[in-house]
Amino acid sequence: MDAIRSKIDAIDRQMAALYEQRMALVMTIAEYKYNNNENIFDSEREAAVVEKNLKFLTDSEFENCYIEFLHFIMDQSKRVQSQWIETQKKNNESHGAE
Questions:
Q1: What is the distance between the alpha carbons of residues 7 and 92, in angstroms, rounded to a whole number?
Q2: Domain 2-96: top CATH class
Q3: Structure pTM?
Q4: Got the DSSP string for 1-55?
Protein backbone atom coordinates (compact mmCIF):
# COMPACT_ATOMS: atom_id res chain seq x y z
CA MET A 1 0.00 0.00 0.00
CA ASP A 2 2.80 2.47 0.85
CA ALA A 3 4.48 1.91 -2.52
CA ILE A 4 1.24 2.64 -4.36
CA ARG A 5 0.58 5.75 -2.29
CA SER A 6 4.12 6.91 -2.95
CA LYS A 7 3.49 6.62 -6.70
CA ILE A 8 0.25 8.58 -6.32
CA ASP A 9 2.14 11.27 -4.37
CA ALA A 10 4.67 11.53 -7.19
CA ILE A 11 1.89 11.90 -9.75
CA ASP A 12 0.22 14.55 -7.57
CA ARG A 13 3.48 16.54 -7.52
CA GLN A 14 3.64 16.38 -11.31
CA MET A 15 0.01 17.42 -11.56
CA ALA A 16 0.63 20.42 -9.28
CA ALA A 17 3.46 21.61 -11.50
CA LEU A 18 1.39 21.09 -14.65
CA TYR A 19 -1.57 22.87 -13.05
CA GLU A 20 0.58 25.91 -12.32
CA GLN A 21 1.92 25.90 -15.87
CA ARG A 22 -1.59 25.67 -17.28
CA MET A 23 -2.93 28.49 -15.10
CA ALA A 24 0.01 30.73 -16.04
CA LEU A 25 -0.93 30.22 -19.69
CA VAL A 26 -4.58 30.84 -18.86
CA MET A 27 -3.59 34.24 -17.49
CA THR A 28 -1.82 34.98 -20.77
CA ILE A 29 -5.01 34.02 -22.59
CA ALA A 30 -6.97 36.32 -20.27
CA GLU A 31 -4.69 39.19 -21.23
CA TYR A 32 -5.23 38.47 -24.92
CA LYS A 33 -9.01 38.26 -24.47
CA TYR A 34 -9.01 41.49 -22.47
CA ASN A 35 -6.93 43.37 -25.03
CA ASN A 36 -9.05 42.05 -27.92
CA ASN A 37 -12.43 42.38 -26.17
CA GLU A 38 -13.16 38.66 -26.50
CA ASN A 39 -15.49 36.58 -24.36
CA ILE A 40 -14.05 34.32 -21.70
CA PHE A 41 -16.46 31.47 -22.44
CA ASP A 42 -16.25 29.73 -25.81
CA SER A 43 -18.50 26.67 -25.93
CA GLU A 44 -17.07 25.47 -29.24
CA ARG A 45 -13.53 25.61 -27.86
CA GLU A 46 -14.54 23.72 -24.72
CA ALA A 47 -16.25 20.98 -26.75
CA ALA A 48 -13.15 20.69 -28.94
CA VAL A 49 -10.88 20.43 -25.87
CA VAL A 50 -12.95 17.56 -24.49
CA GLU A 51 -13.12 15.75 -27.82
CA LYS A 52 -9.40 16.17 -28.50
CA ASN A 53 -8.28 15.06 -25.05
CA LEU A 54 -10.56 12.03 -24.82
CA LYS A 55 -8.39 10.50 -27.54
CA PHE A 56 -5.52 10.31 -25.05
CA LEU A 57 -7.40 7.96 -22.72
CA THR A 58 -6.53 4.32 -23.15
CA ASP A 59 -9.15 3.02 -20.70
CA SER A 60 -12.70 4.03 -21.63
CA GLU A 61 -13.83 3.12 -18.10
CA PHE A 62 -12.54 6.54 -16.98
CA GLU A 63 -14.14 8.53 -19.82
CA ASN A 64 -17.02 10.11 -17.86
CA CYS A 65 -14.80 11.04 -14.93
CA TYR A 66 -12.19 12.47 -17.28
CA ILE A 67 -14.81 14.60 -19.02
CA GLU A 68 -15.86 15.93 -15.61
CA PHE A 69 -12.20 16.60 -14.77
CA LEU A 70 -11.71 18.55 -18.01
CA HIS A 71 -14.81 20.63 -17.36
CA PHE A 72 -13.62 21.31 -13.81
CA ILE A 73 -10.24 22.52 -15.09
CA MET A 74 -11.89 24.67 -17.76
CA ASP A 75 -14.25 26.16 -15.15
CA GLN A 76 -11.27 27.06 -13.00
CA SER A 77 -9.55 28.53 -16.05
CA LYS A 78 -12.57 30.75 -16.72
CA ARG A 79 -12.57 31.86 -13.08
CA VAL A 80 -8.86 32.75 -13.24
CA GLN A 81 -9.45 34.68 -16.47
CA SER A 82 -12.40 36.54 -14.94
CA GLN A 83 -10.37 37.47 -11.88
CA TRP A 84 -7.44 38.64 -14.01
CA ILE A 85 -9.69 40.75 -16.24
CA GLU A 86 -11.55 42.28 -13.29
CA THR A 87 -8.23 43.23 -11.71
CA GLN A 88 -7.15 44.91 -14.94
CA LYS A 89 -10.41 46.84 -15.16
CA LYS A 90 -10.09 48.03 -11.58
CA ASN A 91 -6.48 49.05 -12.14
CA ASN A 92 -7.43 50.97 -15.28
CA GLU A 93 -10.30 52.70 -13.48
CA SER A 94 -8.08 53.74 -10.60
CA HIS A 95 -5.40 55.06 -12.95
CA GLY A 96 -8.00 56.86 -15.05
CA ALA A 97 -9.34 58.64 -11.99
CA GLU A 98 -5.98 60.22 -11.18
A1: 46
A2: mainly alpha
A3: 0.86
A4: -HHHHHHHHHHHHHHHHHHHHHHHHHHHHHHHHHHTT--S--HHHHHHHHHHHHT
